[in-house]
Amino acid sequence: MHEKTVHVLWGCFLLWNLHIASSQTIHPGIKARATQRALDYGVQAGMEIIEQMVKERKIPDLKGNESLEFLKIDYVNYNFSNIKINAFSFPNTSLAFVPGVGIKVLTNHGTTNISTDWEVKSPLFQDTGGADLFLSGVYFTGVLILARNDFGQPTVKLQDCYAQVSHAQVSFSGELKVLYNSFAEPMEKPILRNLNEILCPIITSEVEALNANLSVLEVLTKIDNYTLLDYSLISSPEITENYLDLNLKGVFYPLENLTDPPFSPVPIVLPERSDSMLYIGLSKYFFKSASFAYFTAGAFNVTLSTKEISSHLIPNSQGLGSMLSRLADIYILSQPLMVRIMATEPPVISLLPGNFTLDIPASIIVLTQAENSTAETIVSMNFVASTSVGLVILGQRLICSLSLNRFRLSLPESSRGSIEVLRFENILSSIIHFGVLPLANAKLQQGFPLPHPHKISFVNSDVEVLEDLLLISTNLKYETSLKQPSSFPGWADLNLISRQLSGKPAP
């Protein structure tokens, strides 16, 4: 029921976006660019896909009738069924961008070997058997028109289809193959005619099947128990002579609130490069929306006990657990201690050339709670933890890691008299450095899924931080057995794990 509610809310939200889209300019949070190198590789991968596809597809029967004048037979009805493509070769195949239109597909001098069952009927005889059909001079051209539908999903349509096979050679098998092969040549012409008539309808049908699959593509992805990520296209693909650009919305939403964040994206300008097959630009807006969504959902709020910090988070923290125990003895007479860390604002994202930082403004409250009593605040203070973000691509995922740069603590407010700021700053810095960040990094190692075509993996990937932009450069590899990765757990698991440690159910 919860999932259905989310989809209904998303549908209403999408319709509202469609209503107002015509009155405002929308910029993407993610821009993906495919270069000519991607198309060239697409030819190679496409042959593998077609080979797999033709083995699974049922090819319609070829039926017809012909008169055999040299045998003085008025007509012979024939039917070729159970048609199977055993091998094919398209040595001269190319894909090219057609600016403002789509992608042109061209192949010529192709050959195909086909096996088939046959049946013939005439006034003089009737028989069945097997045959091999060799096709040569296969030619095809067409333009794939790429667009988006009203739900932000990609669409593809075949335009200007032209397909022709120049030559067909039939070889019958069986006891009477000498007889049948004697009139195989007169049958090759009608076979070619019938085949050429159905080629474009067959190819168009395959493109329509692809379109049907694209229409159920999920463009709103649940990342974890706190956020959704909108991958929808905000416009039709932009096609130039050298590349194709996909503009994706690229915005995070809190799971229970599909309202856009209170800030707007700016245009993404990708560098003019062509060495890699694919470039993915993740804008500052993309990361800011993630920060805002997780903050709004309360994912950065963590409550930990002394026992949890000591036994679960910081086994190698150079005595932090004993330090906290001494603190408890001094200030709260050995009563149970809790540390509550809460983000006071969304973490601040900074993307500068070669430098990705995340500043986390937060507050910390140290509490104690005696048995059968309410919690008492011992000390509270605000701080800003400045972290560097390390980035690497593994598979189809962006792996992030955080390291503490500096820690700034404001003057604490205490109900137990004067407290040394420096002492608390050292303690809290240790909690962040040895406790919270290792926990966050352990979860971030599972990675964030990047948009990629089905069964296509990233290879030789590189990550570069530019001004307000994270640029991923990568090549592609088609994997027939590639498994889809599980969902990205995200930063929100800081809270989920703290709930697990304290025995509380996850939301």
Describe the protein's topology:
Layout: H1 2-21, E1 30-35, H2 36-56, E2 62-68, E3 73-89, E4 92-98, E5 102-121, E6 126-148, E7 154-173, H3 177-182, H4 184-214, E8 220-222, E9 227-230, E10 238-239, E11 243-248, E12 251-254, E13 278-283, H5 284-296, E14 302-305, H6 306-313, H7 320-332, E15 337-343, E16 348-352, E17 355-368, E18 376-394, E19 397-409, E20 413-414, H8 421-444, E21 448-449, E22 456-466, E23 469-478, H9 493-502
Antiparallel strand pairs: 1-11, 1-13, 2-3, 3-5, 4-5, 5-6, 6-7, 8-9, 9-12, 10-11, 13-23, 14-15, 15-17, 16-17, 17-18, 18-19, 18-20, 19-21, 22-23
Helix pairs in contact: 6-7
Descriptive tags:
single chain; 507 residues; 9 helices; 23 strands; disordered N terminus; disordered C terminus
Describe this structure in words.
With 507 residues, this protein is α+β, with helices and mostly antiparallel strands. The protein has nine helices and 23 strands. Strand 10 (238-239) and strand 11 form a beta hairpin. Helix 6 packs antiparallel against helix 7.
What is the number of beta strands?
23
Q: How does the major sheet shape up?
A: 8 strands, antiparallel
Could you report the average pLDDT, rounded to the nearest whole number?
A: 78
Radius of gyration: 32 Å
Number of helices: 9
Q: What is the strand content?
A: 35-45%
Principal-axis shape: elongated
Unreliable stretches (pLDDT < 50, length at least 5) are 1-10, 12-23, 482-507
Q: Which secondary-structure class do the elements indicate? A: alpha+beta
Query: In percent, how helical is the residue content?
Result: 25-40%
Distance between the termini: 15 Å
